[in-house]
Design a protein that fits this description.
The protein is α+β, with helices and mostly antiparallel strands and 503 residues long. The chain has an eleven-stranded antiparallel beta sheet, covered by helices on one side. Strands 17, 18, 19, 21 and 22 form a five-stranded antiparallel beta sheet that branches. The N and C termini lie far apart (68 Å).
Length: 503
């Protein structure tokens, strides 16, 4: 009869006064695979001028692992101080965006250390994914933790976070990616209860495939990074990017407002109060044909500092009647059924397609569930109406009710004073009855000292001598000069559109 572990433990306590510890092997996962010649590998091995790589990739720190494509051409050598580097040309395709620039790579560890400013966020993703193994296997022949590694080694190092385990060569696998089929060595490690995997090829500079996970103490670990080699060429003599125009240099985007600062925001519960959404956007006044950036914070309806996890959602644009299907779905633009935010904080870059006028943006929340699983939570949504203008600042949003014209007429003939007129205009802007496109507020004191020609315009507008847009141009002047001050609350307001179509 076999003696149970508990019985052996009790005997050990009686003899030694302690419980026997598990064998040390449980603390160290032995790996290693055998290849002919027992070769060494490190990130960047064999990299040379003329190499061309095309990868699809994502990283959790950039839009929660939203996929983009990065094409890299090794242009030649570059000297920075005493260090020899590779100078590379890079093009990134990120949704509707095209970013072209340069990137410097180290020769002993191919980590990016400089290059075009517009590529900075993508360089960070590249460093933390495709060349991440350079932290363990690089060209420094210094022994210890640095230097090339053998595939036969039991371990290449240990993950630094709490609970991290050994990075080990695990198995020899034949892997097919879009660039072809490769005999690879699987490098794997466990963290947060999931096994991360990177597939490398003997003598090839970068891994050809990866799927790794972030460390979590509970729940389902989200992806940390993924990538796949789409194409590889050698001896490319001329730049493959000659005919590619970066969005930065695109003449169609030259007069577009910047999207760097997400200073405009709307914080509101969804229609049926299932969620709270804090939406940031830039620019303040979106322009047709120009970039626009959104950030959505999906929050608990009970605590506005508690982020929701595993949010399935979409950003759609609908017509004035709020009918389905939508005029546009950002998820469909990116080839997905829905957008997914593991952490409840998500960013979207887009090109505005709507013509001048009021655009009805809808943040449509399908519910909370892991990818591929239909949520059991209720559907809910938030409508955000924003005025769209063209690049000349013109907007066709001015469908102004007739009673407002009467007020303008009364002001023009002296029946109401200037201050009452200004307060009325502030209310109309706040409620988005009047849409004011691309108007920077002036530094005036809001003294309400209105030029006579504005009052004449109001009278002409009231009797139909000038159109709505001409009147609005006069209001824009008052805002630019600081005569009318628009409170911040005006940026947070939303028109009372009928949205029963979403039920």
């Amino acid at each position: 009869m076999k003696t149970s572990f508990l019985a052996l433990s009790l005997i050990a306590i009686l003899i030694f006064g302690t419980i026997p510890l598990p064998h040390a092997a449980a603390q160290f996962q032995a790996g290693g695979v055998s290849l002919p010649g027992d070769p060494l590998w490190y990130a960047g091995i064999g990299l040379k001028q003329g190499d061309f790589f095309r990868y699809s990739m994502c990283h959790v720190d950039y839009k929660e692992c939203t996929e983009f494509e990065m094409d890299i051409w090794i242009k030649g050598d570059k000297k920075t101080g005493t260090e020899d580097k590779w100078l590379t040309e890079v093009v990134v395709y990120d949704g509707n965006k095209v970013i072209k620039g340069e990137m410097d790579l180290g020769k002993l560890a191919p980590e990016p250390s400089g290059g075009s400013t517009d590529l900075s966020v993508y360089r960070g993703a590249f460093k933390s994914s495709i060349v991440w193994l350079s932290a363990f296997a690089n060209g420094y022949y210094e022994g210890g933790d640095k230097g090339p590694k053998k595939f036969s080694a039991k371990s290449w190092g240990k993950i630094g976070n709490i609970g991290g385990e050994q990075i080990i060569p695990t198995a020899i696998e034949k892997v097919t990616v879009k660039a072809g089929t490769y005999d690879t060595v699987l490098i794997s490690w466990k963290t947060g209860g999931a096994t991360s995997k990177v597939w490398v090829v003997d003598g090839f500079p970068f891994p050809v495939k990866a799927h790794t996970y972030t460390h979590v103490s509970s729940g389902i670990p989200p992806s940390e990074y993924e990538f796949e080699l789409l194409e590889y060429k050698e001896n490319v003599k001329q730049s493959p990017f000659t005919d590619i125009i970066s969005d930065v240099d695109n003449p169609e985007l030259k007069n577009c407002p910047k999207t760097d600062s997400l200073t405009n925001s709307i914080k509101r519960p969804t229609k049926n109060f299932s969620y709270q959404i804090h939406a940031y956007y830039s620019p303040e006044y979106p322009v047709q044909g120009c970039p626009m950036k959104w950030q959505f914070n999906f929050l608990s309806k009970y605590h506005d500092t508690e982020f929701l996890n595993q949010v399935q959602y979409d950003l759609i644009v609908v017509d004035d009647k709020f009918t389905l299907p939508p005029l546009r779905s950002i998820a469909q633009d990116q080839g997905y059924e829905y957008l997914y935010s593991p952490s409840g904080l998500s960013t979207i870059d887009m090109i505005v397609q709507q013509p001048p006028g009021t655009a009805h943006f809808v943040v449509y929340v399908y519910g909370l569930a892991p990818q591929g699983i239909v949520p059991s939570n209720p559907l809910d949504y938030l409508v955000i109406d924003l005025p769209i203008s063209d690049k000349d600042g013109n907007s066709n949003t001015q469908n102004i009710p007739s009673w407002i014209k009467k007020n303008a007429g009364w002001w023009a003939d002296g029946s109401i004073d200037d201050n009452s007129f200004v307060q009325g205009i502030q209310f109309l802007i706040k409620e988005r009855i009047i849409q004011i496109p691309q108007t920077a507020q002036g530094s005036g004191t809001g003294s309400n000292q209105i030029p006579d020609w504005i009052k004449k315009n109001a009278g002409w507008w009231a009797d139909g001598s000038i159109d709505d847009n001409s009147f609005v141009q006069g209001i824009q002047y008052l805002i630019k000069e600081g005569i009318i001050k628009i409170p911040q609350a005006a940026q947070d307001s939303e028109s009372g559109s009928s949205d029963s179509w979403l039920g």
